[in-house]
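Subgroup meeting minutes
Present: P.N., E.W., G.H.
Scribe: E.W.

1. P.N. recapped why we're keeping a running log of single-chain structure predictions: easier to compare across weeks, and new members can see raw inputs and outputs side by side.
2. G.H. added today's entry (508 aa).
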Amino acid sequence: MKLIAKYKWEICLSIFLAAIYFVLRLIFLNRLPIFTDEAIYVRWAQIALNDASWRFISLTDGKQPMYVWVAMVLMKFVHDPLIAGRLVSVLTGFLTMIGLFFLSLELFKNRTVAFLTSILYIFYPFSQVLDRMALYDSMVATFFVWALYFSVLLVRKLKLNIAYTLGFIIGGGVLTKSSNFFSIYLLPFLLILFDFREKRLRERFIRFVLLAVFSAGIGYGFYSILRLSPLFEMISTKNATFVYPFSEWLQHPFTFFAGNFKGLFSWLIQYLTLPYIVLILTSLIVVKTFFREKILLLVYFILPFTALALFGKVIYPRFIFLMSLMFLPLAAWGLNYLIEYAQRSVHLNIPKYFYAVIITFIFILYPGFVSLQFAYSPIIAPIADADRAQYLNGWAAGWGVKESIAYFKKQAENKKIFVATEGTFGLMPESLEIYLIKNKNITIKGYWPVDIFPAEVLEKAKKMPTYFVFYQPQHQVIPVNYPLKLVFAVKQGNASTYYRVYQVISQK
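Output recorded in log:
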């Protein structure tokens, strides 16, 4: 009870921030249309839940299985599979917020800075986007942040229990996505925080090296679990789709660097927003203390960011999310400086904590507006242009999926129907299978390509009501000889394209 009384304000503030986090992440959680990758991951989790032999199903597409395993568990308790998948990101985002709190506290030894970091994370538009989607990236960031926190503890305390805890976290990270290998590659840079002035320097240095190797070994040990699957090699194949292998990169080492860097940097600026950028610059330029800690955070951003710009073949904004989080403790340190400066310099007849509330509110106002707008009306939210194109204004965004699911359920109430889809992997047919696969009156099958109308679909139309779903841009104009009658069409965000459901006319 004495402990509670001592930290009552911190406890109350923690509960308040947790409540704000969950409100902002959970409101209108189903308003965003299902994204192509979400459909794939949720369908994998659904299959893995119902068939133990497919627990490594993500390896069929070269993806690690940790996200699928967690989503699979939540699906036991949440009726809507997509919401279950998105709740994984909501929960991992909350763990990221806690991890940033402890990371900031450990680096800057200031509880106020730690709380400010959590506040900045809550209203960070980038985290609002990815914490609300059934994608890997929120979970990837969780492991990255916690791995850095325990890495800092390791270099400062040199304890075995910290080393194996770090190893477990790294292991979970590399079972989620290959980008978490940065938690291993960046371990040598923890020497930035190593105290070279203490006694027994050589002994302590050797101890750090051995403990770091031990942690990395545990991480690689976890990763080796994937070798039990014959599909393990698919990971490197998939990685080569997004990142140039070193041998290929040597043929054009800097050809794509400038373009990649420009794109990644513009997305970073769009998500950080001007208020956060001002706080980051304040921390780096104006505040002179904790130099080494700030350098470490910059290293954990700059090196992965540069590596992605150098080796990236196909890049998206979400790839820089984990490294962008390194700016939030810096921004919080800058915000704390401005609050303390105002408390010293501005003499108003108000309590000191009012300065903190007012200044913090000023700097989170616009990011908070963007975050709230993304939840309430995502189609007009000013997020990164590339994400708007993917998640909201194109064929990859599942506008029309909800309507088609409701329509097919109604049509199959008392008869069997056949649903054909344009595409065999991705948004179609996975998004329909998630909700309709257990309906015995509905058969779903994907076709690709559909430059020639499938004869099997014509045969099905002779036996039962048959429908065809088209959604990709190259088939916005259907050939006149296709025996189709439009049932309904849904505009794909602000694009000039439509998601369409046709009924196949029987050719007897």
